Amino acid sequence: MNKPARFPSVTGDTGGTARFTAAEFLHMVEAGAFDDIQIELVQGELVRMNPPMNEHAGRQAELIGQLWAVLPDARNRLRGEVAIDLGDDTIVACDVGLLSAPYEGHRSVEAGAILLAVEIAMTTADRDLGVKRLLYASAGVPHYWVVDGKRSVTHVFEHPVDGDYASLRLVPFGETLAVPGTYATITLD
């Protein structure tokens, strides 16, 4: 994802920060409250995301194209910019999501349906390697990749345990990446 833009806190009469549930957030989305902006709900707070830039979009298209080519059922399992429901107060979007199986529904996808979540980190490596990694691991997403364009490497996280991933491998661009749930590999440049 691109670098998050800070969304001003909403305060009530008590001076506390307004917190939202996933259900409230989805209701606001459906009502059109965020039609002109990209926004995520992270632990009850709204976080505004900057729109993807050209290089980010190119890497995302490259990754989706390569996965599409090696997944026989890609149409039913591969998603770009998919909203993932990570619990009662967190809904985030990953740049590319590979579902464990075809998923019914028009809203967000439940974390248990995600086999692989991928973030394209052109300007957001700190967030993607930090808070997003911990959110995905805590929700039990089994595989998480951060495609780090600045370092020309993909951070491959696997095996979520106690709110973090037990395994991390760095795969330099130009080397093969094993696609979870398949015998296929892809190579990012």
UniProtKB/TrEMBL annotation:
- One Pfam family, please name it: Uma2
The keyword Isomerase is annotated on this UniProt entry: no
Which keywords belong to this entry? Endonuclease, Hydrolase, Nuclease
- Name any one GO molecular function: endonuclease activity
Q: Which segment of the chain is annotated as a signal peptide? A: none
Where is each Putative restriction endonuclease domain found? 24-181
The keyword Cell wall biogenesis/degradation is annotated on this UniProt entry: no
Superkingdom of the organism of origin: Bacteria
| Protein known as | Uma2 family endonuclease
Native source species: Sphingomonas longa
Q: What is the lineage of its organism?
A: Bacteria, Pseudomonadati, Pseudomonadota, Alphaproteobacteria, Sphingomonadales
